[in-house]
Amino acid sequence: MSSVLVKFLLVVFCFLWCCFPGRAQKIKVACVGNSVTYGYLLPEREKNAYPAQLGQMLGDGYEVANFGKSGATLLNNGHRPYVRQPEFKKALEFAGDIVVIHLGLNDTDPRNWPNYRDEFIPDYLALIDSFRMVNPKCKVWLCRMTPITHRHSRFKSGTRDWHEQIQHAIEKVAENAQAGLIDLHEELYCRPDLLPDALHPDKEGAAILARTVFSAITGDYGGLQMPRIYSNNMVLQYGPELEIKGIADAGEKVTVCFGKYKKSVVTGVDGKWTVVLPEVTAGGPYELHVATKKREFSYTNVMVGEVWLCSGQSNMAFMVKQALGSEPLLAGARETQVRLFDMKPRVYTDAVSWDSAALVALNRLDYYQSASWEMPDERTVADFSAVAYNFGKMLADSLKVPVGLICNAVGGAPAEAFTDRRSLEFNDRLADILYDWTKNDMIQGWVRERAALNMKYSPLKYQRHPYEPCYLYETGIRPLKGFPIRGVIWYQGESNAHNVELHEVIFPVLVDSWRNVWGKDLPFYFVQLSSMNRPSWPHFRDSQRRLAQKISNCEMAVCSDLGHPTDVHPVRKKEVGERLARLALNGTYGRKNVMASGPLFQKVNFEKGAAWVSFVNGINMKSSDGGQVTGFEIAGKDGLYYPARAVIIGEQVKVYSGQVKMPCKVRYGWQPYSIGNLVNGEGLPASTFQGEEK
């Protein structure tokens, strides 16, 4: 009897569950869009298109339907309006509880946006109203469009600009319609390798879209997460406010405890949160606790002080243990207030071909080894950048506060690899550097040859590499966004010296690119190339001098007196780091009693057969060796330079030669391996320069 009763009760329960009007219903998700939603070019698109992958992520409680139409435009007067397609009718009949709309890509066609742009916003609002009419309770999400890469045939002729204009229009529509906004652009933008035809994502790209949509509509961002740069022993930037940032699930309460302060914040719909604490006294140690109900992070031995990013190529990566005179630094390492965050590559760009594991990691932007903040000791200092460490040590000794150094330097890397993608795409002089970069002579030949060797065994057409334009920005700089720093020191140029004029465009763009991350007034101090027997280097050094004068809050440290005729890696790094520290102490920290640099060319006058050269920072000028001043040359109108005598008279140098009766041009330190020996009273060297009659 008992078994019969159990079976009867089960039948009754199932009947009531099926018939009861309040039973759970699946949440219907309508994915509306164009060929990206449809899954164009994807093998087994029914399984691999982003709506299908989204359905797998959401699980049995959801019903996800794909209403994508290849070639569809949002514009009703476009060449293929979505509202006139059968997919639109089916989407209305579906009456989704959630509607995710990704339209606009095809509106970049020259038949559409140039003619009907003023209709875009009203047409989009009407489309949204259509879905709300069939289901007034539906939640509508608009998507910022997926990227169109530089390889698209119409990229520079209009698509680049129209795509950005449409993105802004979509944002306005979302605001006006009180609809949610999902950013399908950001994560794919730095993965052009996942857009093989410049427009449509592959399976991995579609998975990124599905995960992005999943997080938006569920609020599930993986719980509380902190940027990887947060760890024990870290240094946080001192200032009038202290910002702590991270990610958590949407609507979660995040509590931050630091020192005597405790503050809570509720995350937004995008899962992002920021806590701003009042000014915290420099020093420490402090403890930082960040918690939600489900997860907590605790960081100990945290200091507040000055944080600097130290970047560039191999001369910045050059380690303390490789530098001349490193023994005293290592012996006293534990006594300094310098903390180190060393972003070393997983694989080095040596003359080898990488294996498949390295190539796969590079494509996934996983280029740097896991790192954490380290205390200074014989081991950590020995393996850290010599230039950066000497810079930080001089700052810590002078300012009497903790100094945090983030080193992000890659041997052989060109400046364009450290520059963000948008800055290159929207600069008409630089956009072409993105195309077929391994065969592009805008990029130095050695750089391309080394990259080709490293990637020799990759089967992929669009294999990523640290020398590729934008790559080091996307893997090394972008992840640091949101972690405040005081400024940047930079030692790079060897891999751009082949084209002085092109570097004069790239370098200011790079500086602006990083200032867009950390603030417009970010100090940027860099090292001029040293002396070496490479014929383009005098022109490059002089170009760097002029760039320092042109870019605001940007200064240059001279090291031509520390070079080597045949070695691109001179070993006297202590002086280089300390010269950078002088620039920071004088310019950033207001220590005007610290001489910032050696004599810098200001102007030249030509009188009575001689050039009279005036300098900034030329107090008590002399020769470095106590002999005659060397390294000056003058020329007449014929442009032929001759070695010249140089006599210091006050803060000017008189330059003349019996071979040039009427000079109108003067230059200094113009040999690739310079013989110039002009210094000021602090012993700091003069820069390579050339000047002429105005």
- How far the N terminus sits from the C terminus, by CA atoms, comes to 113 Å
User: Beta-strand level of the residues, as a percent range?
Assistant: 15-25%
Q: Report the principal-axis shape.
A: globular
The value of Rg in angstroms is 30 Å
Helix content: 25-40%
Low-confidence stretches: 1-23
**Strand runs, count:** 27
Average pLDDT confidence is 95
Main sheet attributes: strand count, strand direction, barrel closure:
10 strands, mixed
Global structural class: alpha/beta
Number of helices: 21
What descriptors fit this protein?
alpha/beta, globular, five-stranded parallel sheet, single chain, 21 helices, 694 residues
Q: Can you put this structure into words, describing what you see?
A:
The protein has 694 residues and is α/β, with parallel strands linked by helices. Helix content is 31%, strand content 22%. The chain contains 21 helices and 27 strands. It is globular, with a radius of gyration of 30 Å. The N terminus is likely disordered.
Summarize the model shown.
The chain is α/β, with parallel strands linked by helices and 694 residues long.
Can you lay out the helices and strands and say which pair or pack?
Layout: H1 2-19, E1 27-33, H2 35-38, H3 45-48, H4 50-58, E2 62-68, H5 86-94, E3 98-102, H6 113-116, H7 120-134, E4 139-144, H8 155-177, E5 180-183, H9 186-189, H10 203-218, E6 235-237, E7 241-247, E8 253-258, E9 261-266, E10 272-278, E11 283-291, E12 296-312, H11 314-317, H12 327-331, E13 338-342, H13 356-363, H14 378-382, H15 386-399, E14 403-409, H16 421-425, H17 445-454, H18 471-477, E15 487-491, H19 500-518, E16 524-527, H20 537-550, E17 554-557, H21 573-587, E18 600-607, E19 610-616, E20 622-623, E21 632-635, E22 641-643, E23 645-649, E24 652-656, E25 665-668, E26 678-679, E27 689-692
Parallel strand pairs: 1-2, 1-3, 3-4, 4-5, 6-12, 12-14, 12-15, 13-14, 15-16, 16-17
Antiparallel strand pairs: 7-10, 8-9, 8-11, 11-12, 18-19, 19-24, 20-26, 21-22, 21-25, 23-24, 25-27
Helix pairs in contact: 4-10, 7-8, 15-21, 19-20
